[in-house]
Amino acid sequence: MSKAPRQPSRSRPDRGRKNARPDRPSTPERRRKERAPKGLWLYGRHAVEAALANPRRSCHRLLATAEALARLGPAANRPGLQVDVVERDAIDRLLPEGAVHQGVALSVAPLPRLDLKRTCAPEPGPNVVLVLDQINDPHNLGAILRSAAAFDVRAVVLPERRSADLGGVVAKAASGALDLVPVVEVVNLARALDDLAALGYWRIALDVAATATPDEVPAVDNLAIVLGSEGPGLRRLVRERCDLAVRLPIAAQMDSLNVSVACGIALYALTRRAALDARSDAEAPEKSTS
């Protein structure tokens, strides 16, 4: 008896391939991402200059117009750096729409991770550390880093998750400060505050609901200023790790300030007071021992 003809089997997904996935339709957005160069791109003159001058930053490829390359000068002569002179529209196509690149873009690697205790270990004189809880807006984070550089902050500490990516937008908003101020990413922010206390830091939370003001902060050498995102503010466990909460006294018709603006004001108020205290101590006449 002859066998019946074998029916063609239905196609089934290859169960032996764990990573197998169905084909996806090609879209313009997907094709654009596939063509985009991999890596992290910084842009804007100040951000690129600071990255090129930072020995901790690995720099791979520089794209610049002829005019922008001339402005960079010797900074572009970094060993091992590939330099390509291009037109502005080539950089426009590479970066997010609307990015103000000033004719220059730099392919880099992320900065190496830093150890909190080693980075924030107090040195003689005033030491200020910024601790940021869930600052998700890259423009706010960049502005905070810029203020941190202006007030000689030792380090900025932030959680590795629930924070803005330390990429091109942050670097541009920071105007070079991303490569000037050490940024310490931690897994647990509350535990990091415990570590800062063990190093001798007095932890000050900025909180609109607080009753104390910066004038009531004790005169100490080591300060950790803790700021939360607009809206949610500080998380409970982070707030509980602080030694004192202060508010910035502002007019009643406004209930709060942008977090980057509040950070700049707090840094000025607290570092100015520390400088005045230090000058008063230096100018005070010595007591007679006779």
Q: Tally of extended strands? A: 10
Specify the helix fraction band: 25-40%
Number of helices: 10
CATH topology of the largest domain: Alpha/beta knot
| Average pLDDT, all residues | 84
CATH class membership of the largest domain? Alpha Beta
**Overall spatial form:** elongated
Say which CATH homologous superfamily of the largest domain is assigned. SPOUT methyltransferase, trefoil knot domain
* CATH 2nd-level architecture of the largest domain: 3-Layer(aba) Sandwich
Main pleated sheet: 6 strands, parallel
What is the topology, as strand order, of the major beta sheet? 7-6-5-9-8-10
User: For the terminal residues, how far apart are their CA atoms?
Assistant: 128 Å
**What low-confidence regions span 5 or more consecutive residues with pLDDT below 50?**
8-37
Describe the 3D structure:
With 290 residues, the chain is of the alpha/beta class. It has 2 domains: 38-108, Ribosomal protein L30/S12 (60s Ribosomal Protein L30, Chain: A, 2-Layer Sandwich), CATH 3.30.1330; 116-281, Alpha/beta knot (3-Layer(aba) Sandwich), CATH 3.40.1280. 33% of the residues lie in helices and 17% in strands. The chain contains 10 helices and 10 strands. The protein has helices at 28-35, 45-53, 66-72, 88-94, 116-120, 138-150, 168-174, 189-198, 236-240, 259-283; strands at residues 40-43, 59-64, 82-85, 104-108, 127-133, 155-159, 183-186, 202-206, 222-228, 244-246. It has a 6-stranded parallel beta sheet, with helices on both faces. Strands 1-4-2-3 form a 4-stranded mixed beta sheet. Strand 6, helix 7 (168-174) and strand 7 (183-186) form a beta-alpha-beta unit. It is elongated.
